[in-house]
# Entry
Amino acid sequence: MEKCAICGKKRPSNDIIHIDYTPHIICSDCFSKMIEKRVKRNIRFFGPLEKGVKGFLEGKEHNKKIATFMLKKFFHPSFFELADLKKNADLLINSKSLEEICMDFLDIVFHNKQLPTSRVFLFCDIPQEELHLYAKINNIKLKKPRTPDLPALLKPKQNRFSFASSFKTLVKLKQDKNHKN
Ligand SMILES: [Zn+2]
# Structure
């Protein structure tokens, strides 16, 4: 039995999660809640979602499945629903993981591409492996995707988090500027 650093409960070792960027160990319930908290924070940051809004999910199938599970858990259908088609949606919801966002961001920086706007980047600061761990804990059945081949610069997870944080700030700045104009 090991003690969770968040709830303090003693849990069997198969119910304990080790995250490489913190020395603490946490139980699967607290891990799940931690991931959901980050996603809710991203919704508030890039959103907020308003009542009656229909969202369209972008991204690869496995992450869209995780995103759908969470959105259904967070919002009653009378408040927020997903649209089948992009043309029926008021809001784009992006389900790319931290790694995918970093790769996109590198592309934007080095190839002078435009920053995306008007999107809620649900998982922009959540590593793919943590999304899969979340799926496993919550019994979301997924086909395991290929792990992305990251450039050396993005190998340390800390670098990925810094990239994601700059990405978030820049997208938000652009969003706010567009709203003012
Ligand atoms: Zn716990």
Remarks:
- The first strand starts at residue 2 and ends at 3.
- Residues 157-180 form the longest helix (24 residues).
- The chain is about 45% helix and 15% strand.
- The chain has a mean pLDDT of 90.
